[in-house]
Amino acid sequence: MSALDTLAFLVGSTTGPETRHPTPWTEGGAATGHLDGAWEAGGLAIAQRYREVGPAGEPLFAGLFVLMVDRDEETVLMWGFDSAGFPPEPARGGWVDGSLVLERTSPRGRSRATYTPLHGGGFTQLREFRASADDGWSPVVEGRYLPGSVT
After folding, report:
1. I need a labelling partner for 86 at 20 to 30 A (CA). Which of 6, 23, 109, 129 fits?
2. Closest CA to 94 of 85, 86, 103
3. Are 45 and 59 in contact (CB under 8 A)?
4. Can you say whether the dihedral through the CA atoms of 39, 150, 50, 100 is positive or negative?
5. What is the pLDDT at residue 21?
6. 132 vs 141: CA distance, rounded Å
7. How far apart are the first and last CA of the chain?
8. Is-contact 65 78, C-beta < 8 A?
9. For residues 151 and 106, what is the distance between their CA atoms, to the nearest angstrom?
10. Residue of 58, 70, 90 lying closest to 3 (CA atoms)
11. Cβ-count burial of 73 within 10 angstroms (0-12 exposed, 13-18 middle, 19+ buried)?
12. Angle 122-82-116 from CA coordinates, rounded to 5°
């Protein structure tokens, strides 16, 4: 199995509950995440569209995440274009104890996305942030997404 094949769990439509943690950019609270991933570029990349809505169906956040494997280094790269509007810096990482862990650095600090495939389909996601190396990781959003229709 190639490194790219290990990302297949991100392909398809998933929906699930999320917990948003308070950050300098967002309020905390409950949300629902809708993700729709598809193979692109002849099967060399995955484009994952993400939409987060609040309890009353109000839009909270939207993003397009593009993942591919750096064949030279056998690491996974991810670029995130989102409604926060900051230019994307690529996240880089790989598999750690059964989870795909991707980290990036930007002028605002470091972020980490952890995706864990679920037996039977779907995955969990934990996004974390830290402003400086002296800070610990703080959760931003965590969710559990199961196969289903994205609306």
Report:
1. 6
2. 103
3. no
4. negative
5. 96
6. 19
7. 32
8. yes
9. 32
10. 70
11. exposed
12. 25
